[in-house]
Amino acid sequence: MIDLHYWPTPNGHKVTLLLEETGLDYRVHPVNIGAGDQFKPEFLAISPNNKMPAIVDHAPADGGAPLSVFESGAILVYLAEKTGQFLSSKPRERLATLEWLFWQMAGLGPMSGQMGHFNVYAPEKIGYAIERYDTEVRRLHGVMDKRLAEHEWLAGDAYSIADMASYPWIGAYSSLPVDYAAFPHLQRWQQAIAARPATGRAYALARQVNPAAGQPLSEEERRQLFGKR
Question: What is the CATH number of domain 91-195?
């Protein structure tokens, strides 16, 4: 059994996408980041950077005590290796998957998050920041589109954790639509993942956990998300 400490954000979706694809048994422990659950001592014990998602595996491969994992990319690698799915054991295919996974972790995720922050959540509109991150995210979409013009999936011929990591960050903000006219291969890829049954189940879970998703943030939610030091 996997304990999933989760809130329906793009990084949270990455893990539910993989869990639903693999069929692993898991139970959800909501971490309401707008209420400050990520700062509770019991959560910090498994995720010291006060970010979700995090997991606890009660049946690790070594047969030892329950094993906790934080950071979404590390969780994806851990679960892929645990199940032998979505991360090839062939050296070249495995390397391609890890390259695109780390590309997402270092680029697409952080840059898309900053784009969303300065366009959607910032208390004042800062033109330089908006243009900076809008331009960079568009560049990254172009990188993906070029790759997907040559390959069905980011790592090559097989759907992998690299795709699951990137998918939630494409169109993460309804008010910031992706320019699919400019990136048709990205659109083809996005639609293919959206059509997968596991994707439907993962996003249905998100709506169950946080039915209020998408509503304007309260002042308390802003304080918890952006005001903590």
Answer: 1.20.1050.10
